[in-house]
Amino acid sequence: xxxxxxxxxxxxxxxxxxxxxxxxxxxxxxxxxxxxxxxxxxxxxxxxxxxxxxxxxxxxxxxxxxxxxxxxxxxxxxxxxxxxxxxxxxxxxxxxxxxxxxxxxxxxxxxxxxxxxxxxxxxxxxxxxxxxxxxxxxxxxxxxxxxxxxxxxxxxxxxxxxxxxxxxxxxxxxxxxxxxxxxxxxxxxxxxxxxxxxxxxxxxxxxxxxxxxxxxxxxxxxxxxxxxxxxxxxxxxxxxxxxxxxxxxxxxxxxxxxxxxxxxxxxxxxxxxxxxxxxxxxxxxxxxxxxxxxxxxxxxxxxxxxxxxxxxxxxxxxx
Length: 319
Hints:
Elements: H1 2-12, H2 26-30, H3 67-74, H4 88-105, H5 113-127, E1 138-142, E2 149-152, E3 156-160, H6 161-166, H7 170-185, H8 188-194, H9 207-212, H10 215-231, H11 235-251, H12 257-269, H13 278-281, H14 285-298, H15 309-315
Parallel strand pairs: 1-3
Antiparallel strand pairs: 2-3
């Protein structure tokens, strides 16, 4: 089991050399801010935790989580300090718990370090232009042929290998990741949870409140898992994530039409025999496209925005 979590850790951390000079471009210029050599410390990944780490310790070392620890947290056995309501530390702890569930439901880690590094580079490029660039974002690939992507609080972004295989260029990946980054930046999951019946008897979701009611954290995690993997959040929040995702991609220098192109292909496959849970957790693709088409016309025109199809092909040739 420890070996499994070490592999998961490898997927969530950026390591090794940067891309070569032949890959020069927007991504390579920005990535200096997203690697350990960066002068901006909030973007550097934490050192590996060779002792295996723990869930409540956050990602100070790595996501080397003892699976039994999640049960301890959900039962309220772990003692935690009081924090500000929905502070980043509490947000990250909830995100870690959901991340474990994601690996469990979607086949675990897709083991390709080079591809994982590339997805992280693209993801962090887009994350730099969001409202919360200081979060330590982690982008992981799940070993599932189902097309899906989702975000957990605290900066955890997951994309399946099935979705990656359906993309045609880097701008499409940037658009998909921009949508998920919008969920994190707009705190869609946390805001939905605060309005839910789980928190109906308390004024905020804080660690002190969870200490007073040991079952609260477990209930919060269960509800977030249900929202993320089964029922989805409010459709208006999904529409908002599309809108902000388009803007993020454009700010990062990508053609914002990338998300639109992917959604058009997704719409054509929606009636296929193999249906993804994506279709039950998101609004109808036709509704999303109607809004995205209109939003693209309202974005300020910018020349030279990139699709980066050739670079995408180089990095995904093995897919």
